[in-house]
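Working notes for the structural subgroup meeting. M.R. asked for a predicted model of this chain before we commit to crystallization trials. I am recording the input and output together here so anyone reviewing the notebook later can reproduce the run.

Input as submitted:
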Amino acid sequence: FVPLDDKLVMQYVQGIPEVAAFIGGSAAEWSAAEVGDGNINFVYIVTGPANTIVVKQALPYVRCVGEAWPLTQDRARLEAEALVEGAKHCPAHVPKVWKYDDVMKTIVMRFIEPPHIILRKGLCAGTVYPLLAEHVSEFMAATLFSTSRLNGPDADFRKTVASRCNTAMCEITEQVIFTEPFGVAANNHHTSPQLDASVADLRADTDAKVAISALKAKFVEQAQAYLHGDLHSGSIMCTQDSTQ
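Returned structure, recorded in token form:
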């Protein structure tokens, strides 16, 4: 395993013949840039004369924190498997995976081309996406039903749950969504003193803690379909007529 950078990622792609051919030209004609704005992984865009691809790499820690927060690199395999599985059931809304590399912990995948932008940015700009609800509901219906026990033998469903349990990533959600915001924790931040009273009220709100504990129990205990991460406006890219 070697952590990539803007130069090494082009050498890496050069070693994958089918991807290099897709990009076109030679490595001397390519450009690369790290563009990840998420919390977890590093994301590189590699552009050639013919096409562009994305290389996502999982380092052994949380990107936004650094080595102080270790995180299993097996998350890359689980994400790649989720994308491949999702594409089986809803190819119109799931980007193609070219390759998963278990040594380098990389996913080589489709570059979602402009004018696609992250949904959150579009919403903040006041953009209306007329097909968004239809596309997201198509994706959810197709993937959730097709990977649930309603679509096959119970024994197969149990095997899938066992093989694709993403413990490390689930623990992050359990920690930073369902637990820490309701008490004192190092990861918590708020605007002080303006929000001090609101934060104190939340930490003292027993009803809120009971309710969030019930939601956490559901998250931990009720495996009903194959999910990868949380579906939110930062994990969707779209245009007026396309949603990925």
